[in-house]
Design a protein that fits this description.
about 230 residues; alpha/beta; Rossmann fold; 2 domains; four-stranded parallel β-sheet
Length: about 230
């Protein structure tokens, strides 16, 4: 099985982190092909970045025709419907995958994301997926996406503070890390706080494997038809 894990922004260090997280959970017989968009913003933070990165994302997708599934490694699920319209293989967004994973293991979850301007888009997606009632809160750390690439201990402390608030104030039973740039923090934070911490790259890859194993493909009757 070959899965394309594509970062819709142009920051290759983030793509490397995403690839590592994907390969850590993939089955031994799954090949992870990690790619970055070649044209678009360096990070995706809000509605404008989401819109401007879609052409570069689509251009990169068509370069990888021989894959069995695609995971879009942007927590906003950037271009998800467009890519599903472009291809027949299963396509998952990491936000979508993480929300569904959290909803299956906890009664309520909170999302820890980057900037406040990203919150409305994530809340809109939760409504769209029918999972808003399972989400106690979407919390912004006010950490720019690219700051996550620096490994600054103060950045991790800000994430910890929001997790504490999610547990104590939101009564969250699980935490969803709302940015692909947080993909390397899942195991550490889960052990530290003693509750499930979910990141979407891992969830997206394992869900993609399940869909391929069940011979399920994107429906081409209706919304995702490209004829």
């Amino acid at each position: 099985m070959k899965i394309l894990v594509i970062n819709p922004n142009t920051t290759t260090s983030m793509t490397d982190k995403i690839a590592q997280a994907a390969r850590a959970v993939a089955r031994p017989d799954t090949e992870i092909v990690a790619a970055s968009s070649q044209d678009g913003p360096a990070s995706i933070q809000g509605f404008l970045d989401v819109a401007t990165c879609v052409p570069g994302l689509l251009n990169e997708v068509v370069q990888h025709k021989e894959v069995d599934a695609i995971v879009i490694a942007c927590f906003d699920d950037t271009g998800l419907d467009a890519v599903r319209s472009l291809v027949s293989v299963p396509v998952l967004g990491i936000g979508e995958a993480a929300y569904h994973a959290a909803s299956m293991i906890a009664n309520k979850f909170s999302v820890i994301t980057t900037l406040s301007r990203s919150v409305p888009g994530l809340e809109n997606n939760l409504l769209r997926y029918g999972l808003a009632q399972k989400c106690a809160c979407v919390r912004a750390t006010e950490i720019p996406v690219l700051k996550l690439e620096e490994g600054d201990p103060a950045t991790l402390d800000k994430i910890r503070l929001e997790i504490h608030a999610s547990i104590n104030e939101d009564k969250a039973e699980a935490i969803v890390l709302g940015c692909a740039g947080m993909a390397d923090l899942m195991a550490q934070l889960s052990e530290e706080f003693g509750l499930p911490v979910i990141e979407g790259v891992s969830a997206g890859v394992t869900f993609a494997e399940a869909l391929v194993n069940n011979s399920l493909r994107t429906s081409k009757i209706g919304a995702y038809s490209n004829n």
